[in-house]
């Protein structure tokens, strides 16, 4: 059956009973009137009941003797007047598209209508009418898309609805805050409350509940401003100290007196804020810290977080270092959302951070902070102003070695080696570069502008492009001056001569193939070199920040991986350019060694 909107669908004593003596209106689940879920496709609109009553009062001589029962304010709002009321709760539950007031009792009802699709008519939603994370919740009478009245008598200043169903995307809506109203009225309210299949949820609740290596801590704190002298700080204030770039918490508050936190003699209990986290070189503030033991992927962390948000119990762990920073109980089904996926990128909602993530998935996380001086937190502990923060991008990949060199290491440990070198630190091609010999094989390189100003004493470089082939090769910088540097050609028995600038000369600084070659470092700053201990060896590279040797960060890094074994595999250089991506595989397959002999 459908929602009834036409008064011709109603009949006295079948769908509607007017008891004039008792002054009650009763709606019956009979005839054309259904109470089935979802409510959007059942029941009867308030406007339809009003229209039917008008027709009956006009044609029914018995009813016409009595004062008319309904004052319709507009189609989504009406009042039962002159002592009339609903016969029972079922009658109230069948009204659609309109809220109402029972004048005799003063009871007010708001009609809650959800917009947007839900994947199943059997999916339940629930609501709370009080702030706080331990407030009581009520399940809506109907499942699926909503259209039903809720009693708001004495509870009209807060209303939040939730739809959280396992293996489906979550949604929630804080009605008053979102629509900018101070109190609910007896009328209809529409808002989005949807769900869809969540493709990131693949494990059952039982499997997720067994993920004991994850927990979440909620922290106290407010303000989140830059520390200032002579400022009144309320209890539980959090500030960013510009002097140190770090965040601090005061349990008691007070009036500050000092240029910075360390010098403050007014607020005497500043302690490190446990919600600060470093991303790149800066520290940012968060108030919900999800801690993983590192054994879980982004999707598993997400599955665990989503599962917590359907629990009726307190999900707040009790292991913060400073007890007075621990927030109180947080029932999962009332907690604010933690994060969401866009493709494979996991982004947290404002104030949430994840510790202990799998380092290999570091690039897959975006954390949303509580932005300093952005207005602090709203009534639900969410930042008024938030900013997405990403770690500097870390390129990742694997060195994939041939079976022969792996076998060589297995047979005789310590006889193999691999190393990743930058092909060069900088490269320049310029036609203003000339050379004047001083005492061969040394001489002065000159140029116009600033093309070689980045070179320094003791740098190596390799040149190409000179007409005199003796000038093409490896050089060591002896000294530098203004638009000039003195360098010595490397190698025995080489004689160099003066050559004026005319050709396009290419110069690579500290390149592979020279004594100045620089080993590429991992993101923690460890050289990518070692024994070939397995067929696959992982590597990473701080793409956004690596400035080894003065190279420009945030740029592709041409490199060469060399491998060698005493026996079993020949020496092999393999070229690769590190780009701003994850999962870069470098195949290293040297030919068999047939000539090495050590008796």
Kindly describe this structure.
By secondary structure, the chain is mainly beta. The protein has 4 domains: 1-198, no CATH class; 205-219 and 274-389, no CATH class; 394-423 and 518-588, Immunoglobulin-like; 427-499. β37 and β38 form a beta hairpin.
Features:
single chain, 599 residues, mainly beta, Immunoglobulin-like, 4 domains, 9% helix, 33% strand
Fold blueprint:
Blueprint: E1 16-19, E2 24-27, E3 44-45, H1 46-59, H2 61-64, E4 70-74, E5 77-80, E6 85-86, H3 89-93, E7 95-96, E8 99-102, E9 107-115, E10 126-128, E11 138-139, E12 147-151, E13 160-163, E14 171-174, H4 175-179, E15 188-192, H5 205-209, E16 214-218, E17 222-226, E18 232-233, E19 237-241, E20 246-250, E21 254-255, E22 271-272, E23 276-279, E24 282-285, E25 288-292, H6 298-308, E26 339-342, E27 345-348, E28 352-355, E29 365-368, E30 388-389, E31 394-401, H7 403-411, E32 416-422, E33 427-430, E34 434-437, E35 442-446, E36 460-464, E37 474-481, E38 484-489, E39 505-509, E40 529-530, E41 536-542, E42 557-565, E43 572-578, E44 584-588
Parallel strand pairs: 2-6, 3-7, 5-8, 9-15, 17-19, 25-28, 27-29, 31-44
Antiparallel strand pairs: 1-2, 4-5, 8-9, 9-12, 10-11, 10-13, 13-14, 16-25, 18-21, 19-20, 20-22, 23-24, 26-27, 29-30, 31-41, 32-40, 32-42, 33-39, 34-35, 35-38, 36-37, 36-39, 37-38, 42-43
């Amino acid at each position: 059956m459908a929602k009834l909107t036409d008064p011709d669908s109603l009949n006295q004593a079948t769908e509607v009973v007017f008891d004039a003596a008792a002054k009650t209106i009763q709606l019956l689940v009979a005839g054309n009137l259904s109470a089935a879920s979802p409510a959007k496709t059942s029941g009867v609109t308030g406007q339809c009941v009003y229209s039917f009553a008008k027709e009956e009062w006009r044609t029914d001589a018995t009813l016409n003797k009595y004062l008319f029962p309904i004052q319709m304010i507009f189609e989504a709002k009406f009042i039962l007047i002159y002592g009339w009321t609903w016969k029972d709760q079922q009658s109230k539950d069948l009204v659609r598209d309109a809220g109402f007031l029972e004048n005799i009792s003063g009871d007010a009802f708001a009609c809650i209508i959800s917009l947007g699709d839900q994947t199943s008519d059997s999916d339940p939603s629930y609501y709370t009418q009080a702030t706080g994370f331990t407030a009581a919740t009520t399940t809506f009478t109907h499942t699926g898309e909503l259209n039903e009245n809720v009693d708001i008598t004495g509870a009209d200043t807060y209303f939040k609805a939730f739809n959280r169903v396992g293996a489906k995307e979550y949604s929630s809506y804080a009605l008053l805050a979102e629509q900018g109203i101070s109190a609910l009225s007896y009328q209809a309210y529409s808002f989005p409350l949807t769900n869809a299949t969540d493709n990131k949820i693949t494990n059952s609740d039982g499997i997720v509940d067994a993920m004991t290596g994850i927990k979440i801590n909620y922290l106290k704190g407010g303000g989140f401003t830059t520390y200032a002298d002579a400022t009144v700080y309320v209890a539980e204030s959090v500030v960013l100290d510009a002097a140190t770039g770090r965040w601090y918490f005061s349990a008691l508050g007070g009036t500050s007196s000092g240029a910075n936190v360390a010098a403050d003699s007014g607020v005497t209990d500043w302690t490190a804020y446990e919600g600060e986290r470093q991303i790149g070189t800066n520290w940012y503030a968060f108030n919900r810290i999800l801690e993983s033991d590192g054994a879980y992927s982004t999707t598993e962390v997400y599955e665990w977080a989503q599962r917590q948000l359907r629990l009726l119990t307190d999900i707040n762990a009790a292991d913060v270092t400073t007890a007075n920073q621990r927030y109180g109980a947080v029932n999962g089904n009332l907690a604010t959302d933690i994060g969401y996926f866009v493709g494979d990128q996991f982004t947290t909602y404002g104030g949430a951070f994840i510790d202990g993530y799998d380092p290999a998935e570091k690039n897959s996380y975006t954390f949303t902070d509580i932005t300093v001086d952005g207005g602090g937190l709203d009534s639900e502990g969410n930042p008024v102003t938030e900013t997405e923060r990403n770690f500097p991008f870390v390129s990742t990949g694997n060195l994939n070695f041939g079976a022969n060199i792996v076998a060589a290491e297995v047979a005789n440990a310590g006889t193999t080696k691999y190393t990743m070198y930058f092909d060069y630190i900088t490269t320049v091609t310029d036609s203003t570069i000339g050379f004047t010999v001083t005492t061969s094989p040394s001489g002065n390189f000159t140029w116009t502008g600033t093309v070689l100003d980045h070179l320094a004493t003791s740098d190596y470089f390799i040149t190409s492009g000179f007409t005199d082939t003796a000038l093409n090769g490896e050089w060591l910088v002896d000294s530098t001056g203004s638009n000039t540097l003195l360098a010595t050609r490397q190698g025995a028995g080489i004689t160099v001569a003066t050559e004026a600038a005319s050709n396009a000369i290419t110069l690579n600084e500290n390149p592979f193939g020279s004594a100045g070659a620089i080993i590429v470092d991992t993101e923690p700053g460890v050289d990518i070199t070692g024994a070939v201990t397995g067929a696959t060896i992982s590597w990473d590279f701080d793409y956004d920040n690596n400035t080894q040797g003065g190279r420009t960060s945030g740029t592709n890094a041409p490199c060469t991986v060399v491998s060698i074994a005493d026996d079993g595999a020949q020496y092999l250089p393999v070229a690769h350019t590190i780009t701003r991506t994850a999962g870069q595989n470098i195949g290293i397959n040297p030919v068999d060694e047939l000539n090495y002999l050590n008796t």
